[in-house]
């Protein structure tokens, strides 16, 4: 089995999950590919999986598939059911054997690879903070709209930044850090926070309070800049102080 066959299988699976015909898929792919892949071209990709007529699929096409079908790039490299033990070509000898199931390790990343991934994200948050935070917002369920929701979102993002930096440190156990990081980030998505507020309001308040603590120095800095007549810039320039209980819609225990 080749990697091209695996991607071809997942391409067809993605199309069928969307309920698109091959002709519709051709239309939807065009803006992401930059050219029109006709129905025969879509069919050629899919036939790569289980026929003798195989087509090589390049990296730019996989990125286009990811965008069109709204799937992670790694999703297209997951092995088809029942093929986990199959060898993936090319394999010069047993020392370099790759089973189809091993691709899941490459998709997720082993301990060293995951640590490097976190290091890269941490670096990008420093060099391209606005763009990377926007991308992360898209990955973790979108952007809030109301005033309260916007302030909650900014605090959540600040806490994400702090959590990411903490777990990216070399002193951490990478696997434990990875699991804890994912749990915390899911909680801090707009959907996760809304669910948490309903099931565990104390935990929601704790997370928001942590985020509030993380952004307080930024709020103070923006206030000083404003008093000095300096424009506030950066990802968190719109931060303002809020009442945490009111923002979460929780009752004040003292009332």
SSE layout and pairing:
Layout: H1 3-18, H2 22-33, H3 39-50, H4 59-69, H5 103-108, H6 111-127, H7 129-139, H8 147-167, H9 174-187, H10 190-199, H11 201-227, H12 244-248
How many independent structural domains? Answer: 2
Strand content: under 5%
By secondary-structure content and strand pairing, the structural class works out as mainly alpha
What is the succession of H and E elements? HHHHHHHHHHHH
Largest sheet: none
Shape: elongated
What Rg do the Cα atoms give? 23 Å
- Specify the helix fraction band: 55-70%
Mean pLDDT: 78
Number of helical segments with 4 or more residues: 12
Low-confidence stretches: 171-183
Euclidean distance between termini CA atoms: 67 Å
In total, the number of strands is 0
Can you characterise this structure?
The protein has 255 residues and is mainly α. It folds into 2 domains: 106 residues, Orthogonal Bundle (434 Repressor (Amino-terminal Domain)); 137 residues, no CATH class. The protein is 64% helix and 0% strand. It contains 12 helices and no strands. Helix 8 crosses helix 11. The longest helix has 27 residues. It is elongated, with a radius of gyration of 23 Å.
């Amino acid at each position: 089995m080749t990697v091209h066959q695996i991607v071809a299988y997942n391409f067809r699976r993605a199309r069928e999950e969307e309920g698109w015909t091959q002709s519709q898929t051709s239309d939807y792919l065009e803006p992401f590919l930059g050219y029109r892949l006709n129905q025969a071209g879509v069919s050629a990709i899919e036939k790569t999986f289980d026929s003798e007529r195989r087509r090589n699929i390049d990296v730019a096409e996989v990125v286009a598939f990811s965008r069109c079908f709204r799937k992670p790039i790694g999703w297209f490299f997951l092995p088809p059911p029942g093929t986990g033990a199959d060898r993936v070509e090319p394999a010069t000898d047993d020392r370099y054997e790759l089973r189809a199931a091993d691709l899941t390790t490459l998709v997720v990343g082993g301990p060293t690879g995951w640590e490097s991934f976190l290091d890269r994200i941490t670096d990008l948050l420093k060099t391209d903070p606005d763009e990377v935070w926007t991308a992360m917002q898209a990955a973790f369920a979108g952007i809030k709209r109301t005033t309260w929701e916007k302030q909650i979102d900014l605090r959540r993002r600040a806490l994400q930044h702090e959590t990411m930096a903490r777990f990216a440190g070399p002193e951490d156990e990478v696997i434990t850090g990875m699991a804890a990081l994912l749990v915390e980030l899911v909680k801090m998505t707009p959907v996760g926070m809304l669910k948490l507020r309903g099931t565990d309001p104390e935990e929601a308040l704790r997370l928001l309070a942590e985020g509030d603590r993380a952004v307080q120095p930024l709020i103070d800095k923006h206030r000083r800049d404003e008093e000095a007549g300096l424009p506030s810039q950066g990802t968190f320039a719109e931060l303002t102080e809020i009442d945490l209980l009111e923002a979460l819609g929780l009752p004040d225990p003292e009332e």
